[in-house]
Amino acid sequence: MRPRVKEPRATLATTCVLVLMCAVTWLSLTTGTYSLSLPQIIATVAGRGSELDAHILLNQRLPRLVAALVLGASLGLAGMIFQSVSRNPLGSPDIIGFTTGSATGALTIMLVVPAAASGSPGIGVATGALIGGFLTAIVALVLARLGSRNLAHQLILVGIALGALLASVNDYLLTRADLEAAEVDRTWQYGSLNALTWSQTAPIAASLISLLVPALLAARSVRILELGDDLAAGLGLPVTRTSYLLLGLAVLLTAGAIALGGPIGFIALIAPQIARRL
Question: Quick one: pLDDT at residue 149?
């Protein structure tokens, strides 16, 4: 069998996206209220810049840039996995309730156990988001299996219902908190990379990067699943086990992204669709 040749269009599209990403990276590092030129950036990276340049570049803009790149990649891959397993373009974690479930876990830690949220930067929130995401996934899968043996057809509807229910739980948690904490956590629910530091970004970003590798390696299994359960099983793929493993990986990516930047929506929904069309 001849090896499959990569499509020139895919190579061109990937190259253009990388060039665009480099341009946006450059703009994010150099522009703002305090502008930085190329010589200033080079001097700062080499350790010869001023203290103000080093603070702005290394302690403020760079951790936010790393967080944005890792968070975007994680949500994009999580959305791709969810949409492929469910074989539905609406099957992204923010639509089918997994993002809301992770946010519920994180809010529970922040409001009910604030000491755990403030102990180690981001670790308590990440743990809550992870637990909330996995509990939501387990409940959604169990309910989807009760309605039908076809996981793809039921997961979307069950997830939307769970998302609406958990959104009400999140609102209830906010009403039970004191005013100052409620305002801070309500702002967190909109998602933001503002004020991120290395102490918050580094551990979660490192964990997400370690998850990106198996997510990319799973591309072949994802493509086979998109052919349908019967054909995938005929090609020798253990459909149920593979679906559960992929969903678990997607939940990890989603929970980590939420712990890093909050429940940022729409990226997981639209990024896989843009990638497919490119």
Answer: 60
- List all residues 6 or more positions away from 261 whose beta carbon is below 8 Å from its beta carbon: 67, 68, 71, 191, 192, 193, 196
Which ranges constitute the DSSP H helices of 91-122? 98-112, 114-119
Please name the amino acid found at residue 67: A
Measured distance CA(93)–CA(163) in Å, rounded:
10
Nearest-CA neighbor of 196 among 71, 51, 52?
Answer: 71
pLDDT score recorded for residue 16: 94
Helices and strands of the chain, counted as H and E runs:
14, 0
Q: How confident is the model at residue 121 (pLDDT cuts 50, 70, 90)?
A: very low
Q: Is pLDDT above 90 for 89?
A: no
pLDDT at res. 271: 92
| pTM (two decimals) | 0.85
With beta carbons less than 8 A apart as the criterion, state whether 88 and 95 touch: no
Q: For Cα atoms 44, 210, 117, give the angle at the middle one, nearest 5 degrees.
A: 80
Q: With DSSP H G I counted as helix, E B as strand and the rest as coil, what are the percentages for the chain, rounded to 5?
A: 80, 0, 20
